[in-house]
Amino acid sequence: MTAEPNTVPTVPPGIDRRNLWTFGVGTVGRDMVYTLVAVYLVFFLSDILQVPRDEFVVLGWLILAARLFDAVADIVMGGIVDNTRTRWGQYKPWIAGGVVASAVFTVLLFSDLGLSGPMVVIVFAVVYLCWSLSWTANDIPYWSLMPALTLDQKQRERFGSVAKIFATLGLFTVVVAVLPVTKALAPSVGSVTAWTVFAAGVVTIMLIGQAVTLIGVREPKLVVEQERTRLRELAHVVFRNDQLLWTAVAMVLFMTGYLTTTTFGTYYFKYVYGDEGMYSPFGAVLVGSQLLGYAIFPAVSKRISRRRLYTIATGLILVGYLVFFLSPANIVLIAIAGLLLFIGDSFITLLMLVFLTDTIEYGQWKLGRRNQAVTFALQPFINKVGAALSTQVVTIAVWFAALDADHPELASPSALFIIRIGMLVVPPVLIVVSYLIYRAKYRIDDAFYARIVSDLRDRGQLR
Fold it and tell me: 357: domain range?
């Protein structure tokens, strides 16, 4: 490692507002689609399509296997993107192709293909795997584009904040609208077709938003040319970057806990509170809290160190879980719990994003190579592993609870207890473990990052 220099890195003169907003807009429809698949696919299979109980469990294991396979494919895709050189740039060809393919497979996932028996499982497995791979082809280059737009930490926080605000608007639209809209459409077109129509609408918004990003974002050149990354080098890039590795472990635990809570939400309100309609206002609180958190994050991060902010956010989340666990079916108390939970979640989500981004320069500084897409491939890898594990937790819990979609009021006390533990006890335990790992292992603070960037510029590895 190089001795600490006396110079400091040059701060870019100002943020490119065109890139800031056109990059952020691209997340709206993407997160609508991702929320629909990650949070509601299991509910669609169990309560709308009403797949038989044994087949439902098999589908749950297939989702787990496909997501874990695809998570590994994320790293490979990162290597492919790092090696891409085209006249349209390094990222945009993959973003365009991936979004079109994932749009098609999203609609198929929420359709009744008229199959029965083993064919339901086989065809679902193929369609879901194709969706996962096409999503990867879009997701890896999309998020890898963000750290290519600026080297300045505070500007990266702002890019992340704006992108997450738009992403949360997408999440908000789905969480609040999916149940009321599909119920309103069901009498005229049927329950399953209502979900298909909703999926088609979400996909259309995704295509429009991604078109804005493809046309609007100007991709700068921040780094010098380097050798192509070979397939056998991918594991080396990930495992030798200790800060990337520990960030990934902490993020997987956090996302598993967070997504377990959101995936259980529909079941919780339907079976524990006996009022499925309460989920939409709770969803509005969820999204409003996250929007507030993302909006105030840049201002808060200027006054509070990242480490202290992470501690405060974790505390808010734990208090939120406690209030939720003790609350009766009172929307005011539930709203307070949601406010605490999801403001804390928004802070940690953005912190994790910028932690991951800063490990790109750290990896270049330590290993001598800038594997931007491979490094940033860990974000969707983390999301997919977290989603896979959370979906499996929910699937197994629903199977053990033996819930009856047609008669939710008949759920037994033991079934309700399983749902409460799964939604409100397991997640905070995982989130606390995630926090402890971060505190023990992550060390890229502002001063260390400034040293890294200065060293890279002295070596001629950054322009």
Answer: 18-220+230-452
Task: Please spell the DSSP secondary structure of 425-446, one letter per residue.
Answer: THHHHHHHHHHHHHHHH----H
The whole-angstrom separation of Cα 41 and Cα 223 is 41
CA distance 253 to 257: 6
**What's CA 290's distance to the chain center, in Å?**
13
CATH number, domain containing residue 159: 1.20.1250.20
223 SS3 class: strand
Report the length, in residues, of the chain.
463
Query: Which tokens hold the place of 34?
Result: 């991702």
Q: Give the pLDDT confidence of 363-413 residue by residue, as tens digits.
A: 888 887 777 666 766 777 777 788 778 877 887 787 777 666 666 665 677
Spatial CB neighbours of 137, under 8 Å, sequence gap ≥ 6: 77, 94, 97, 98, 101, 102
Residue 6 lies in a domain: no
Q: How many domains does the chain have?
A: 1
CA 233 – CA 378 distance, rounded (Å) = 15
In a domain, 460, yes or no: no
Collect all residues with Cβ–Cβ distance below 8 Å to 116 and sequence separation of at least 6. none
Of residues 334, 304, 394, the one with CA closest to residue 44: 394
- 8 A C-beta contact, residue 2 and residue 455: yes
